[in-house]
Design goal:
heterodimer, A: alpha/beta, FAD/NAD(P)-binding domain, 3 domains, 5-stranded parallel β-sheet, globular, B: Ubiquitin-like (UB roll), 8 strands, BFD-like_2Fe2S-bd_dom_sf (chain A), FAD-dependent oxidoreductase (chain A), BFD-like_2Fe2S-bd_dom (chain A)
Chain lengths: 469, 100
């Protein structure tokens, strides 16, 4: 067959788009496989086309970068250099003697299969938020900060009228300002980090003055809107019967413990909460890629240790969109060189490599600043549900740990069902690890998402197409 | 009072009608089921299998499966992913949604 070697990029966020443009720019045909209805991923999530938004940039920052990515993709698709498959939810990447088969489910229903064959695969699957539990966190109206932002960006809707934004991390500020701009009254922004930690990390953080400026601009917007911002505070409980009606906040001491007597109740109908991000590593895990802790191990060229598999963006370590762009660019150029049978030349991506180094240092600095309260488990009552799918309480997990001797996520799961439900432990994993006092280890699930039995049954007869949908 | 539609200067096509548990609500082209329900002031549309507790959107990006809903007799749909279409019959999903 004379067709040129093809690259499959999985994920059309900043990393996947940068990789696609880099590889296609070198003449490598690319199939961009993405679960979204349009490119952008979570960071550049766009309002649905039918909403006909004339000013989507009001919901975003770094809009020019998005325009460059969007227009670049459009040009490559038009020229036939890139196939962009939307609404393709990838559940497995299969390694074959002559390349890879990417297995996906089509559309929001995710019942019908599609496959894509490629000679190399680039994983740009992004990340998802984790939320640590507290009493009341399963009430409707309590949602992830990123979820509130995704609904706002994608559907131009907001969850309620009065919100508290809480937790820790660089996501809280843009979520709070976004909700406020969209007409939601912000009752409070609650950040568990200690402002003095920013000073201690000043060397790592000043390496990115642009990013600090971004943060300062958000903070200024909140100040202008007179939003009450509380550092070294945490939400200890959400109240309500069928939906959240109020939250209780409390101050934290220097050790990260709730200070007794500091609780105060604030009325709200929405609590947007986040305690950080987790890399999506399922596809890398089932391909057998080496992981370093929660992240996919990559070399300087963004290659995993499985030949023919690259990774970029959040899967290789949470670092945000600028890092994802740099990593995606490097991964795309490296993959293109290998597929074209040439030696990759790091000189070609020297600028991106410098940016990658700086962004990784910045992300490491942020990681040391933004921390959930050290003793958050003390606030989790025995009747608090930890595993939202299987309704397993903290008491049941504690019993498995303290009385039955469970010391890891898998044993807790086998004893209690925590992590056995629809979300496959993605939501409760960090919580169970915290209560069990063990590390959050990759679960090495065979499939990245639920797959209908009918799809598995018809697999042997699947049509294997080279990149078509 | 600003709204998200104003913020993004959105001009969607005309609203259409769907039902939630028999009650008519308005939805906009381009909205997901979750977005239409939020706009109608509804925040939960599932009860859990064990305790029968109400749930709605949690992760908003299709990861957590908390927002499961029954749409046109198909249970287990993620409301945050499924687009709403004219005439949709949306029902609160009780338990697994399979024994109705």
């Amino acid at each position: 067959m004379s067709e040129r070697p093809r690259l499959a990029v999985i994920g059309a966020g900043p990393a996947g788009l940068a990789a696609t443009l880099a590889a296609a720019g070198r003449g490598v045909p690319v199939t961009l496989v993405d679960s979204g209805t349009a490119a952008g991923g979570q960071f550049y999530r766009q309002p649905a086309a039918e909403l006909r938004a004339r000013r989507p940039q009001a919901l975003h920052h770094q809009w020019r970068t998005w325009e460059r990515l969007r227009d670049g993709l459009h040009d490559h698709v038009k020229a036939g250099a890139v196939r962009h498959l939307t609404d393709h939810h990838v559940w497995f990447v299969e390694r074959l003697p002559d390349g890879f088969t990417v297995h996906a489910l089509l559309g929001p229903e995710q019942e019908d299969p599609a496959t894509v064959h490629a000679d190399a695969v680039l994983l740009a699957t992004g990340g998802y938020e984790h939320v640590l539990p507290f009493p009341g966190w399963t009430l409707p109206g309590v949602l992830t900060a990123g979820g509130a932002q995704a609904m706002l960006k994608g559907t131009l809707t907001v969850p309620g009228r009065t919100a508290v934004v809480a937790g820790t991390g660089p996501l809280l500020l843009p979520v709070a300002t976004g909700l406020a701009a969209a007409g939601v009254e912000l009752a409070a922004l609650v950040e568990s980090a200690d402002p003095r930690a920013f000073v201690r990390q000043s060397r790592a953080l000043v390496s990115q003055p642009g990013k600090l400026g971004e943060g300062a601009a958000y903070a200024g917007q909140l100040l202008r809107r007179r939003v009450r911002t509380l550092f070294r505070h945490t939400v200890v409980e959400a109240h309500g019967t069928d939906r959240v009606e109020a939250v209780t906040l409390a101050a934290l001491d220097a050790d990260g413990r709730v200070r007794p007597g500091t609780g105060r109740r604030i009325a709200c109908d929405t609590l947007a909460v986040s305690h950080g991000m987790q890399p999506h590593t399922d596809l890398a895990e089932s391909l057998g890629c080496r992981l370093d802790g929660p992240r996919v191990h990559v070399d300087d060229e963004q290659r995993t240790d499985v030949p023919g598999v690259w990774a970029a963006g959040e899967p290789t370590g949470i670092g945000g969109s600028a890092l994802a762009l740099a990593e995606g660019h490097i991964a795309g150029l490296s993959a293109a060189a290998r597929l074209l049978g040439t030696e990759a030349d790091p000189g070609e991506w020297a600028t991106a490599a410098k940016s990658r180094t700086r962004q990784r240092e910045f992300a490491a600095g942020l990681d040391r600043v933004y921390r959930p309260p050290a003793h958050w488990t003390e606030q989790v009552a025995d009747d608090t549900v930890l595993c939202r799918c299987e309704e397993v309480t903290a008491g049941a997990v504690r019993e498995a740990v303290d009385e039955l001797g469970a010391g890891d996520l898998r044993t807790v799961k086998l004893l209690t069902r925590a992590g056995m439900g629809w979300c496959q432990g993605r939501m409760c994993g960090p919580a169970v690890a915290g209560l069990a006092g063990c590390r959050l280890t990759p679960s090495r699930r065979p499939f990245a998402r639920p797959v209908p039995l009918g799809v598995l049954a018809q697999e042997p007869d699947r049509p294997t197409e080279r990149g078509s949908s | 009072m600003s709204s998200p539609l104003d913020l993004a200067d959105a001009h969607p096509g005309p609203a259409f009608t769907v039902t939630l548990d028999g009650r008519e609500i308005e939805a906009l082209p381009g909205q997901t089921v979750a977005a239409a329900l939020w706009t109608a002031g509804v925040t939960s549309w599932r009860t859990t299998r064990g305790e029968g507790r109400p749930r709605g959107v949690f992760c908003g990006i299709g990861v957590c499966f908390d927002c499961l809903v029954t749409v046109n007799d198909r249970s287990g749909q993620r409301a945050c992913l499924v687009p709403v279409t004219p005439g949709d019959v949306i029902r609160t999903q009780e338990g697994t949604g399979c024994d109705e």
